[in-house]
Amino acid sequence: MRSRTLDERVGGRVVLKAEGLQRAGAFKFRGAYNALRALAEAGPTAGVCAASSGNHAQALALAASVCGTRAVILMPRDAPASKRAATIGYGGEVVSFDRYRDDRERLQAQLSAERGLAIVHPYDDPAVMAGAGTTALELLEDAGDLDVLVVPVGGGGLIAGCATVAKALAPRMRVVGVEPSASDDVRRSKLGGRRERVERRDPEERLSLRKGEPLHGGDPDAESSERTGAASDGERIDRLEPAAISREKRHQIRGQTRSRRLRRIARCFVQHASAARECDAARARRGVKRENQHNEQ
To answer: Could you say which of 104, 122, 140 is where a domain stops?
Structure first.
């Protein structure tokens, strides 16, 4: 995909790989399907299992359905309801666990042993990495030579596959990984020379905050409110124990945060659309001016 407005803003040619249009809504289907095909070639299995809160869960459930096998997904209880429903809709079985108190790896190993299921890791699997790498393969086939390939980094499976493809087909092209500043474990790992992790905090613990601290640490909306000095109702709380806030109030606070994010995204779309219209109008004016000059000559 191309965006004329994006090209003008960065001063170069930008090519986008719209993996949101991929089956199951993300690039994850590539790796999951490739892993299941590799397992099928190795011999019959009773099915597959994985631990995931959303995208890999949906991808594996869909890939298992396509390949004629079953998928059992360990999913946190607080995973988005839409992703849980989609996983079940694709034919997957969902087993819930508490991400803050349960040992996910132990539960996954136990599930695999009890039911005879093959574990398909979301990213730390050569077949998954290879499948994810077809994203860069298709991009280079369609777009041709590129100077820089920018890849989102989470677990690392996507950039591992894409970097492998890039080194083989376009060794001079730079591969740059990007990650959220609030979850920069890869950057810290490279700087420190050892694996770093993103600290996970129980929501109940996050409710016990010192006065004036944002409820959701690292939330861009909370930071913007600090800069403007305006704090909406529910954004900041005084020193409270977990029991002092009801479940309904917590859902209300989370809902307000989501609403602020959606409004911010909507504003960005409006700004981009306005900029695109201005560029189109400027081109039209230049075209009319050139036509008038040509007629005068």
So the answer is: 122
* Residue whose token pair is 């892993």: 35
Residues 77 and 106 reside in one and the same domain? yes
**Which residue in the block uniquely carries the two structure tokens 């996954």?**
108
Give pLDDT tens digits for 167-215: 999 999 999 999 998 888 889 998 999 988 887 665 555 444 444 444 3
Q: Which of 122, 152, 169 is a domain's end point?
A: 122
Any domain includes 260: yes
92 with 130, same domain: the answer is no
Q: How many angstroms separate the Cα of 296 from the Cα of each of 159, 247, 282, 286, 293?
A: 56, 74, 21, 15, 5
Q: Yes or no: say if 172 and 50 are a contact pair by the CB < 8 Å rule.
A: no
Closest CA to 69 of 32, 105, 96: 32
Given its phi and psi angles, is residue 10 left (phi above 0), alpha (psi -120 to 50 degrees) or beta?
Answer: alpha
pTM of the model: 0.66
**Which is it for the CA torsion 139, 140, 142, 143, positive or negative?**
positive
Whether 5 is covered by a domain: the verdict is no
Instruction: Give Cβ neighbours of residue 65 (< 8 Å, ≥ 6 apart).
Output: 71, 90, 91
Co-location of 98 and 159 in the same domain: no
> Where in the sequence is the domain holding 268, given as residue range(s)?
233-297
Number of structural domains found in the chain = 3
Cα–chain center distance at 288: 44
Same-domain status, 41 and 118: yes
Taking only the tens place, the pLDDT of each residue in 63-85 is: 999 999 999 999 999 999 999 99
User: Which pair of structure tokens corresponds to residue 191?
Assistant: 């700087």
Q: What Å distances lie between residue 205 and 83, 181, 216, 220, 241, CA to CA? A: 25, 22, 11, 20, 9
How far apart CA 117 and CA 44 sit, in angstroms, is: 11
